[in-house]
Amino acid sequence: DTAVSQTPKYLVTQMGNDKSIKCEQNLGHDTMYWYKQDSKKFLKIMFSYNNKELIINETVPNRFSPKSPDKAHLNLHINSLELGDSAVYFCASSQGLADNEQFFGPGTRLTVL
Amino acid sequence: AQSVTQPDIHITVSEGASLELRCNYSYGATPYLFWYVQSPGQGLQLLLKYFSGDTLVQGIKGFEAEFKRSQSSFNLRKPSVHWSDAAEYFCAVEGGSYIPTFGRGTSLIVHP
């Protein structure tokens, strides 16, 4: 009965590879997000989708491409991985935009070697 | 532009002692304010939020926060800390742009 789930939990890969992280929410929410948390625990929003449409794209390199096949899923595909992409990536969802509580997934720890 | 400052990187308290975590924000009007907690290896969980009205907000797990417009602050408090409260605490502000800004976090260490 996990509200927001992400797979995989850990991802170790070589520079230059392409990888995907999947996210699913069973809360019936309209809005989903991707965040990046760096090694100093600084959390920054990357993308937000509302009803499968991109709402927020916070100057993220175009190597990162989110895809929302339906309201319950928001996947993150990363091309040509770089060392600086190593971080914990969190998916989150909320009932709507703005003043709504966000529910976070457990995170995916990406390590680029 | 909105910003959040959490001036304390680490806070150490003894179990049973009171706790106050500081959060200062910068925004032209009254923003939406949040406190989240992150336990090790977990995602963030909302403790409480302020949008308007009563400036003292009650949250889960016995936490409360007080919005002080004059000080641009939204400090988190708990009267008696439990060992299970050891975690990372994040203050966040959202000013109507749908883009929340999180502080750097404060790591709470609880001594028995």
Structure notes:
The complex is a heterodimer of chains A (113) and B (112). Chain A has no helices and eleven strands. Chain A is 0% helix and 56% strand. With 113 residues, chain A is mainly beta. In chain A, the strands form two sheets. In chain A, strands 2, 4, 5, 6, 9, 10 and 11 form a seven-stranded mixed sheet that branches. The model of chain A has no long low-confidence stretch (mean pLDDT 91). By secondary structure, chain B is mostly beta strands. Helices cover 0% and strands 52% of the residues of chain B. Chain B has no helices and twelve strands. In chain B, the strands form three sheets. In chain B, strands 2, 5, 6, 10, 11 and 12 form a six-stranded mixed sheet that branches. In chain B, strands 3-9-8-7 form a four-stranded antiparallel sheet, with no helix packed on it. Chain B has a two-stranded antiparallel sheet with strand order 1-4. At the A-B interface, strand 5 and strand 10 of A face strand 5, strand 6 and strand 10 of B.
Task: Pick out its properties.
heterodimer; A: 113 residues; mainly beta; seven-stranded mixed β-sheet; globular; B: mainly beta; six-stranded mixed β-sheet; four-stranded antiparallel β-sheet; 52% strand
